[in-house]
Design goal:
Elements: H1 20-33, H2 57-71, H3 82-85, H4 89-99
Helix pairs in contact: 1-2, 1-4
Length: about 100
């Protein structure tokens, strides 16, 4: 795996560049779910569910477990904010940045 520089990710020009944490989380998503997309190509504003990356509830559960292991805090399945937290790569990164206990 090689490290790449984040690039604009939306064909319509509405996307934004990934932050370093977003790229790190995109890599976690791609590797843990065996997605056929480069981490740098994940639009940080695209939905994680359905359209966008097309993840389902099982995928989100796997991501939650990996995030919990890597960043030292628990993402709970009964958290009423889960839909907001997992709305996009950017919202997940914001949540991780606010709650992580490990670097």
């Amino acid at each position: 795996m090689s490290s790449t520089t984040p690039t604009p990710t939306s064909a319509d020009g509405a996307g934004a560049e990934q932050t370093p944490l977003e790229l790190e989380l995109a890599t976690l998503l791609v590797e843990s779910l065996n997605l056929e997309v480069a981490p740098a190509d994940v639009d940080p504003n695209a939905p994680l569910y359905g359209e966008g990356l097309g993840l389902d509830s099982i995928d989100i559960l796997e991501v939650a477990l990996e995030v919990s292991r890597r960043y030292g805090f628990q993402l709970r399945s009964d958290d009423e904010r889960n839909q907001q937290i997992f709305q996009s790569l950017r919202t997940l990164a914001t949540h991780v940045a606010a709650n992580r206990t490990t670097a």
